[in-house]
Design brief:
Layout: E1 3-8, H1 24-44, E2 49-53, H2 64-79, E3 83-87, H3 103-106, E4 113-115, E5 123-126, E6 131-135, E7 159-165, E8 167-168, E9 178-179, H4 181-186, E10 191-195, E11 201-204, E12 208-211, E13 227-233, E14 237-243, E15 248-255, H5 262-270, E16 280-287, E17 289-290, H6 298-305, E18 311-316, E19 319-320, H7 324-329, H8 335-344, H9 351-370
Parallel strand pairs: 1-2, 2-3, 3-4, 6-7, 7-10, 8-9, 10-12, 15-16, 16-18, 17-19
Antiparallel strand pairs: 1-13, 5-6, 11-12, 13-14
């Protein structure tokens, strides 16, 4: 009989989210709501087991309110006879007095709830599912040892699932809690549920090794977050990414070539016809060529757009293009002309350095014109 699993990780409840400013409080509430949504999905769609691959919390010591909220959801799952396996990640790691040693959590029905909070117990046999879940909780924020080395496939049950939190070694020799791809493939598990990376990612097809990613966005660079993984184990293993998050990342390129005013910028953006921007983490990239006489700054663009988006990150990737007409407007005999030509002569093949020079030219020209 097939086993239905739902895999999540890196919920990071109570994350600081300082970059969100005044929206941080609301986003923390949204993270909790998304976790509640996952639990309701598990119950309504009759999953057999819920796998949480670390960093459910952002800290080993979450607030009492959040602890109680999560406890109630875990109890609800147990009351519905749904199994739950949880490991601690490097953020909610096992420490004396930490959340996974909390008295309430220790009282959760052990028939259905397994929190791997003892470093010497790494296997949970569920005879009703003919399944062994192998889990390794972390005790340090940074560790160069591999959690995979602490578990071995069991021959007592038909199916074996591993629950690990760490970073696969893909061109990264200094990975935290490193996981060897070749060892993950050869360990003999039917499914390996990974946590630590915040975007969904398949590491291997056969055997199935996956990062679920965070179910709700916690940073602007997480294009592949907002999902949970629905896994069915039978003679074969199938994995399906299912969206549960409310907020998405949207990367937009805006060509500002020839634009001189904020109104022109706004009109150009409106022509993109983007929808539901209030639910988007937007990375807005300014591209193209800008002239010397633009009347706007990046700060002004941010101020103009900030209320349109859930969150805005602006990157100016445009390049300053000095036309001959512009240079003619500032002859070399005058101070501004000398200033422009001096800085232009400093340019090299270094893109970052040239970007600073371009900004210095525009700021300097504005300043000198206003004196």
């Amino acid at each position: 009989m097939p086993i239905k699993l739902l895999h999540t990780s890196d919920v990071h409840l109570e994350a600081g989210l300082a970059f969100l400013g005044e929206k941080a409080i609301a986003h923390r509430k949204l993270q909790l709501q998304t976790f509640d949504k996952i639990v309701e999905k598990i119950i309504s769609e009759k999953f057999d087991i819920f796998l949480i691959a670390g960093d459910l919390f952002d800290t080993p010591f979450p607030s009492e309110n959040v602890k109680i909220t999560v406890f109630d959801q875990l109890k609800k799952l147990a009351d519905n006879k749904i199994y739950v396996a949880i490991i601690a990640g490097n953020h909610d790691r096992l420490e004396p007095g930490s959340v996974y040693h909390d008295n309430n959590y220790l009282k959760l029905n052990p028939e259905y709830i397994q929190i791997f909070n003892q470093t010497d117990k790494t296997a949970w046999e569920i005879s009703a599912l003919d399944l062994t879940v192998h889990g390794v909780s972390l005790t340090k924020q940074k560790d160069n040892s591999s959690p995979l080395d602490k578990i071995t496939k069991s021959n007592k049950t038909k199916f074996n699932v591993a629950l690990l939190h760490g970073s696969v070694e893909i061109g990264n020799e200094n990975a935290n809690n490193p996981l060897s791809v070749s060892k993950l493939k050869s360990a003999g598990f039917d499914y390996v549920a990974l946590g630590d990376w915040h975007s969904s990612k398949k590491i291997s097809d056969k055997p199935a090794v996956w990062y679920s990613g965070s179910p709700e966005l916690i940073n602007i660079d997480q294009v592949g977050s907002g999902n949970v993984l629905e896994v069915v184990i039978d003679n074969t293993v199938s994995v399906k990414e299912t969206r549960v998050g409310s907020i998405e990342v949207l990367k937009v390129d805006l060509d500002i070539t020839g634009l001189k005013t904020l109104n022109e910028i706004n009109q150009k953006f409106r022509e993109l016809s983007l929808k539901d921007l209030d639910k988007k983490f937007v990375e807005l990239n300014l591209i193209g060529l800008r002239n010397l006489k633009i009347s706007f700054s990046t700060d002004q663009i941010i101020e103009m757009f900030k209320d349109k988006f859930y969150y805005l990150k602006l990157k100016d990737k445009s390049k300053l293009k000095l036309t001959q007409d512009e240079l003619d407007d500032y002859p070399e005999e005058f101070l501004i002309g000398k200033y422009i030509r001096l800085l232009e002569s400093k340019k090299s093949e270094d893109y970052s350095q040239n970007k600073i020079i371009d900004e210095a030219i525009q700021l300097g020209v504005r300043h000198l014109q206003n004196k």
